[in-house]
Amino acid sequence: MKSNDNTILITGGGSGIGQALAHRLHDAGNHVIIAGRRFDVLSRAAEGRSRMTPIQVDLDNATSVEVFARRLIIDHPTLNVLINNAGIMRFEALGHRRDLADAEATVTTNLLGPIRLTNALVDHLLKQPNASIVNVTSGLAFVPLVVAPTYNASKAAIHSYTVSMREALKGKIDVIEVIPPQVKTGLTPGQEGREGVPLDDFADDVFMQLCSEPSIPEIMVQYSQYARRAEADGRFDEVFAVINGG
Ligand SMILES: NC(=O)c1ccc[n+]([C@@H]2O[C@H](COP(=O)([O-])OP(=O)(O)OC[C@H]3O[C@@H](n4cnc5c(N)ncnc54)[C@H](OP(=O)(O)O)[C@@H]3O)[C@@H](O)[C@H]2O)c1
To answer: Residue 106 gets which letter from DSSP?
Structure first.
């Protein structure tokens, strides 16, 4: 995608990866709209930035997504980039019958969320010059972490969905997948203090790749290539063991 003069929506832009990308894209000369459930978090992320707009939305609710998208198109008719970044990660024990609330919430936020929001905005994006849709998946889409089964599955599903979208929208909208490895954010409790790629390093790398023309279809950093290419390189079992501490 081009690096400046875009109007960009980033879901989950108030924290973590979304916020780090939002700041870099804003610094580069874009109008950036950040959306999420916590307005105080969004407002803090947008503080002192004149072309950054916080908007509250719960992407789990189909009606809210429709209302939000309609309003967005009216208020920001130049919107040409959608970054589906919002997501949740829950740990689940598969070894026995369990309450499926976490599994259902994960599918709703991580899979139905981007499907619904993209659907609500695609006709608008088709009319825009230089339109892009960016979906944030995970290295765990390619090699699963056993303790986060529905999370892995939701990201594998969005990877597959993204491949179809890229083909269906070819020549009209650039469809890009960002595949993060473990990054130090607040995605799960205590994750900022655990092993992982520092957020700023990750965001610098992704920002550079995101702004290349022609677009890079799959954006990875070194550690996510490890998982992304594991099966093709015949290293799936080895990477699976490493990821799962085996
Ligand atoms: N950090 C990693 O290691 C890693 C690795 C691979 C992939 N990823 C992916 O990267 C993306 C960003 O995660 P992160 O690491 O930056 O964690 P994060 O800081 O927790 O960001 C997630 C964002 O999603 C928003 N969100 C969650 N549910 C939402 C909903 N129902 N409606 C609207 N917004 C919602 C949250 O805002 P509110 O709570 O205010 O709604 C939050 O800002 C996620 O898709 C995640 O799966 C992260």
So the answer is: H
7-243 is a CATH 3.40.50.720 domain? yes
Mutate to test the pocket of ligand 1, among 9, 17, 102 (most ligand atoms within 8 A of CB): 17
pTM for this prediction: 0.98
Residue 89 confidence class, pLDDT cut points 50, 70, 90: very high
Give the C-alpha separation, 32 to 25, whole Å.
7
Cα–Cα nearest to 111, from 135, 145, 143, 83: 135
pLDDT at 246 over 80: no
Closest Cα to atom 44 of ligand 1: 87
By annotation, the residues acting in catalysis are 151
The DSSP annotation for 145-190 comes to: -TT-HHHHHHHHHHHHHHHHHHHHTTTTSEEEEEE--SBSSSSSTT
User: Which residues does ligand 1 sit against, CB inside 6 Å?
Assistant: 11-12, 14-18, 36-38, 41, 57-60, 85-89, 109, 136, 138, 180, 182-183, 185-187, 196
Q: What is the pLDDT of residues 111-143, one digit of tens each?
A: 999 999 999 999 999 999 999 999 999 999 999
User: Alpha-carbon distance 15 to 209, whole Å?
Assistant: 21
Pocket probe for ligand 1: among 19, 33, 34, 37, the residue whose CB has the most ligand atoms within 8 Å is: 37
Whether residue 101 is predicted with pLDDT greater than 90 in this model: the reply is yes
On whether the CB atoms of residues 23 and 66 are closer than 8 A, the answer is: no
Q: What is the pLDDT of residue 138?
A: 98
